[in-house]
Structure formats: structure tokens, C-alpha cells
Amino acid sequence: MHRFLASLLLAATLYLCGCGGGALGSHGVTPPSPPTTATADHVFLVVLENHGFGQVIGNPGMPYLNSLANAHALATNYFADAHPSIPNYFMLATGNIETLDDGFTGTITDDNIVRALSGAGKTWKAYIESLPSTGYTGPNSGPYLKRHNPFAYLSDVTGSSAQAANMVAFPQLSADLSAGALADFIYILPNAQDNAHDCPAAIPLCTDQQKLEAADTWLKNNIDPLINSPKFGNSVLLITFDEAAQTDITNGGGQVATILVGPHVKTGFHSTTLYQHQSVLRLALELLRVNDRPGASAIATSMGEFFQ
């Protein structure tokens, strides 16, 4: 039932607001923009939690994230697809909402980013903070929340030990970066204490501002060395938030900040084009020259304007 309702919600959202940037049926909606001509050695995606654009951009407690937004590129008209968290993570991985139940325990068999990458001979890896063990597809464990890891639900992953082995603990990223052994697509997930979802470990009773400050510190400590490494090369890093506050239901999941970093990303660029998570999925596949477009990414607006 959740899958059915989610599918209806996605169809209605795309039809009513044009979020996908493409036509549904023959209603004369402008077709998607041409694909970007940019390419990337690697695409990195970092997802943070539960805060809207206005809570993040211009927040003095998040100097690092705002420095990236100012120096690189920022999508100022970007919206999550739904509430609560899990449909947005699925949109980033399958192009579909899939479910509105954060307690979902099923398996997703729809086309998805793993299938698309593998079919094109590309590789992927998920570096997940506090993941109990390599290839873990089980329930929540401490500050690891399964609903923030869409790969753990995909039949392509749960049905293959080789694919599941691409889900590893976060510290492995540093080793792989140093060794020049990075996959084509890389998903980076801080745990719930570092992604602005929960209070940081050192402050069990915290303010919302302290959650954001902790997330910013995590980004500075872990993402800054990545983008300043010579091994980053011709790559693209995307940072987004799964959803805004629950009270913001604009375009489904509210306005969130999305930042792009890379040597061919326009500097100091602020886009006003309407985007949602399906456009990030499309962009990741475009940059890696993968033709498969799962779900709504097939009709999502291209983010080609961000590149020189």
C-alpha cells in the first residue's frame, strides 16, 4: 500500500509542479534540458538531514558549508520530494519515492543507480559512518540508521554478496583515496550524530543549532581533505539535505540547500532553476556517461547549467 500511495504522490507532484522538468503523457510540458557535456572521474554524493535552505545558508554556525556554497555553486531553488526521510533517499537512488514509511523493511526491485552503473561497466561504493560491518543490510544499529542508506534495500545489493561488499565503513574512504582506488560513484553518509539528525555524541542534550554546527565540523574534517586532495582530480562533489523541516511541504519535501564542487563547476554560481532529488540522480549518471535513467530521473531537469 505504501508503494502504491508513493507512486500516486510522485505522479501527482511531477504533473502539478513540473518538478521533473519533462512531459507526462502529451500535456505539452517542456521536455528535459539537453544533457550536460561535462564528465567526471568520480561523483561523490553527501546527504545531510532534516534542515531547510534558510536554516543552513547564511547560518554563521556553518562556516565551512557556506564557504563551499559561496566559492563553488549553489542551487537556490532546490526541493526535496516528500516527507519523511526515506522517500528522498530512494529518489536519489531509484528515481521513485517507493514508500513514505521510515520503518520500511522490504526490498526494492525497481531500476536503480546500482543497476545503471553496473550495466554501463561503472563501479560504486558507499562509505557509511558507523556501519556495523562491510555489506551490512540489517536494521538500525546505534547512530547508523538504515533508512539513510538506500543501497541496503536494493535487490541488486541484497541479492549479491559482491555488490553488498561495496557498502563499507566510512574510514575506508581515506585509505581508498590515498591508494587511488576510488569507485566511479561514491555515496558518503555521516551517522545520525554527524549529519544534523541527532545531537552530537559529545552533547547528548543539544540545540538544533548545535546539530548543524556538528555537521559543519564533520564536513570540514572529512570532506575538505577530499576535495583538496590531488586524487580528487576531475571529480564532482554534491552535498544535499534529504528534506527540510516537516512544516515545509513546498513541492513535497521543502526547500533544501544543494551545493556542487568540482574543477569544472562554475565558481560563485547560484542557480534559480527548480530542481529536486531526481535531478541529482540524473546528473550523477550523466557525468559518468551512463545512459540508464531510473524512474523520474528520465524526465528530470538536467543540471548542466552548473558546469563551465
Can you tell me about this structure?
This protein has 11 helices and 10 strands. The chain has helices at 2-17, 53-56, 63-71, 86-94, 113-119, 155-158, 161-164, 172-179, 208-222, 224-227, 277-287; strands at 43-48, 73-75, 78-79, 124-128, 167-169, 185-189, 236-241, 258-261, 269-271, 275-276. Residues 1-8 and 10-32 have low confidence and may be disordered. It is 30% helix and 13% strand. It has a single domain, classed as Alkaline Phosphatase, subunit A (3-Layer(aba) Sandwich). The chain is globular and about 45 Å long.
Radius of gyration: 18 Å
CATH homologous superfamily placement: Alkaline Phosphatase, subunit A
Q: For the record, what CATH class applies?
A: Alpha Beta
CATH topology annotation: Alkaline Phosphatase, subunit A
How many structural domains are formed by the residues?
1
Uncertain residue ranges:
1-8, 10-32
Run of helices and strands:
HEHHEEHHEHHEHEHHEEEEH
- Oligomeric grouping of the chains: single chain
**Spatial shape:** globular
Structural class, by secondary structure, is: alpha/beta
Can you give the helix content as a percent range? 25-40%
Strand content: 5-15%
Give the beta-strand count: 10
